[in-house]
Task: inverse folding
């Protein structure tokens, strides 16, 4: 996968792309990163990339010319057009499903803006996706782009040491992930669940599934509405709801 990032602050990505899982994925040749300062594509002597909004108002707006020129320069002739992703608070909320979709692409291009906003012609004629990582506003699109890139790259084959890790992550199954334990089996007065050292793989799988369902019920019950559950699992959840309701003094 090729990932290009258009930003006014390319140095922000140096540590992220060179460290941990992303750095290892790059070293293995699974993904390549390129950061481009789109100020270099400004068509004026002062290299300005923003201007006052037509109609008045506060803040500055990113001009279309530098961003269009940068995207077109990075897109080779005859090449399949990349997904050009605009990071902005108005975009679609980023989810694990979106990460899985983007992980199937060969070329992603992220546009990270600053200031008040973008010239609308960038959205209308250049961008293929608009993404937001939550209902809040940051100073720029760099941090959100890092979040999305990390989430996507870890899904690429060969990136994680254990391919099963990504499959069982929270949200990958539509549910929150079950609890994890490691050595020592006894820490202070707390022991791990006996089933995990039973050696009975079917019982362990059943426990993990139930714990995943229970954790989702308690923390994110909204996810259960669209989760792929069997009738038996829905019946089990109903019992848990009634049990926890009876135990709740409020």
Result:
């Amino acid at each position: 996968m090729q990932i290009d990032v258009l930003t006014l602050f390319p140095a922000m990505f140096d540590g992220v792309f060179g460290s941990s899982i992303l750095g290892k994925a790059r070293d293995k040749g699974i993904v390549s990163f390129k950061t481009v300062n789109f100020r270099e594509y400004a068509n004026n002597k002062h290299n300005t990339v923003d201007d006052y909004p037509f109609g008045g108002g506060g803040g500055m707006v990113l001009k279309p010319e530098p961003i269009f020129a940068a995207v077109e320069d990075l897109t080779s002739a005859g090449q399949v057009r990349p997904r050009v992703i605009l990071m902005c608070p108005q975009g679609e909320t980023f989810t694990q499903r979106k990460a899985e979709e983007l992980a199937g692409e060969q070329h992603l291009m992220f546009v990270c803006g600053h200031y008040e906003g973008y010239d609308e012609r960038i959205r209308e004629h250049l961008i293929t996706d608009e993404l937001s990582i939550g209902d809040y506003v940051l100073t720029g699109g760099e941090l959100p782009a890092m979040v999305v890139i990390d989430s996507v790259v870890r899904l690429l084959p060969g990136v994680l040491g254990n391919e099963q890790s990504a499959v069982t992550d929270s949200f990958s199954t539509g549910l929150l992930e079950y609890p994890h334990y490691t050595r020592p089996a006894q820490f202070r007065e707390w022991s791990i669940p006996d089933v995990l050292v039973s050696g009975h793989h079917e019982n362990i799988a059943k426990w993990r599934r139930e714990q995943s369902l229970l954790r989702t019920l308690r923390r994110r019950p909204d996810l259960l509405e669209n989760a792929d559950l069997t009738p038996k699992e829905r019946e089990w959840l109903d019992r848990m709801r009634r049990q926890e309701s009876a135990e709740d003094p409020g």
Observations:
- The first strand starts at residue 2 and ends at 7.
- The CA atoms of residues 43 and 66 lie 7 Å apart.
- The chain has two domains: 2-153, 186-247.
